Amino acid sequence: MLNIVLFGPPGAGKGTQSQKLIDKYHLVHLSTGDLLRSQIAEKTELGLKAQEYMNKGELVPDAVVIGMIADKIKSNSNAKGFIFDGFPRTVAQAAALDTMLKENGTAISGMVALEVDEEELTKRIILRGQTAVPPRPDDQDETLVRKRVSEYNTKTKPVADFYAGQGKFASIYGIGEIEEIFGQICNVVDKLPK
Ligand code: AMP
């Protein structure tokens, strides 16, 4: 299986590049942000609980997102591989993901990190907040956007070291033409163990 973690701060282009990777490699896309937003739209208990954190720009508790991903891995046992987008966001989530994949006889092939500086991120997210359908309230308030970037810096960045320690980390500069960045991601992905 080809299991990729697409990593980077909010606004780095993970969603856009994930879509292109899915089309090319036929992977199942697991975006915890998308899964949480659909739980919110359906007004489930999980969604309502998650919304309290998302409205503050904070991470949702590990147990909630780990449980959601565990269900998705189980229900897609025939997948050629997964692309994890916005997950894992803490070292505890990364460790749990390793365990879940091992139980399914597979492992993370590699992480690809998109590097984008903070000013560019803030600009991109505010723009997305003005254009996204359906609207994303967490993209429209600059204080909230900065809080999400700060959550990323303190809690999520260490996840890169987790994968670097396993020899599975690659980094790509995330500003430029979408196609050019995609080409660089593919160069990394094509060398990963399947
Ligand atoms: P995203 O769409 O990936 O930017 O996620 C939007 C929001 O959902 C984040 O700001 C978090 O509040 C929450 N979220 C998404 N994925 C995770 C995760 N893996 N762990 C904790 N919270 C998450």
Please provide a written account of the structure:
- The chain is an alpha/beta fold and 194 residues long.
- The protein has one domain (2-116, 156-189): P-loop containing nucleotide triphosphate hydrolases (Rossmann fold, 3-Layer(aba) Sandwich), CATH 3.40.50.300.
- Helix content is 55%, strand content 12%.
- It has helices at residues 14-25, 32-41, 45-54, 62-75, 91-103, 118-131, 142-156, 158-164, 178-189, and strands at 4-7, 28-31, 82-85, 110-115, 169-173.
- The protein has a five-stranded parallel beta sheet, sandwiched between helices.
- The longest helix has 15 residues, at 142-156.
- The radius of gyration is 16 Å and the shape is globular.
- The model has no long low-confidence stretch (mean pLDDT 95).
- The structure holds adenosine monophosphate.
- Adenosine monophosphate (AMP) is lined by residues 10, 32-33, 36, 53-54, 58-60, 65, 86-87, 89, 93, 138, 148.
Biggest sheet, in brief?
5 strands, parallel
Helix and strand composition category? alpha/beta
CATH topology: Rossmann fold
Number of domains: 1
State the fourth-level CATH superfamily. Answer: P-loop containing nucleotide triphosphate hydrolases
- Widest sheet: strand order? 2-3-1-4-5
Q: What small molecules are bound in this structure?
A: adenosine monophosphate
Global shape:
globular
Parts with pLDDT < 50 across at least 5 consecutive residues = none
Q: Mean of residue pLDDT?
A: 95
Total number of strands: 5
Give the proportion of residues in helices. 55-70%
Tell me the name of the CATH class.
Answer: Alpha Beta
Order of helices and strands: EHEHHHEHEHHHEH
At CATH level 2, the architecture is 3-Layer(aba) Sandwich
